[in-house]
Amino acid sequence: MGSLKGKKFVASYSGGKDSALAVYRAINEGLLPLSLMTAYNTDTGGSWFHGVPESLLKKVERSLGIPLTFIKTSGGQYTANFEEALAEAVRRGAEVCVFGDIDIEEHLEWCSARCENAGIIPYFPLWGGDRKELVREFIDAGFSAVITVVNTELMREGFRGEILTHEIALAIEKSGTDICGENGEYHTFVFDGPIFKEKVDFSILHELYIV
Length: 211
Hints:
Blueprint: E1 8-12, H1 17-28, E2 32-41, E3 46-47, H2 54-64, E4 68-73, H3 78-91, E5 96-98, H4 105-118, E6 121-123, H5 131-140, E7 144-150, H6 166-174, E8 186-192, E9 203-205, E10 208-210
Parallel strand pairs: 1-2, 1-5, 2-4, 5-6
Antiparallel strand pairs: 2-3, 7-8, 9-10
């Protein structure tokens, strides 16, 4: 793949650390953000996997200063609706779609197939990176994220609600859990960082975000 510098991009943005870091890297590489796309689960009323409500994601949109498009879909229509959103992005001038995936081949193949069908270039700024180093880079870049979802079959519930610092990342690793959570051990919500104009305020009660 040649240089993508100067090309307009959309990003598959979950609200979590990996998608935020991917957008950050893409911007630093000279790509131009056109919009973010967030898959929104119409069955549960939150972003897919991360469970962030629409009202809070709109706060993120304002702070980032990048338009956010909601792909509102059930599981059965997820693939078709994602492709339609990509096709619409192409019609608006997008040339590249940025993803935050790191090293799971199944994810790479699924995202690449969606982009091929929609006629847009897939780009994975984090692909092949060391999971531990990517967590370190995210924190060192000045991002702030809170652990919001924990798979208790793979990780201790006690980590939920913690801010992802170097110390917490090390504690996660020492507990025997993958430090990056790439296998779904945990998910995060990014509320501040170098691509944010201001901190996004929120609080968490039980499993619900309180905006």
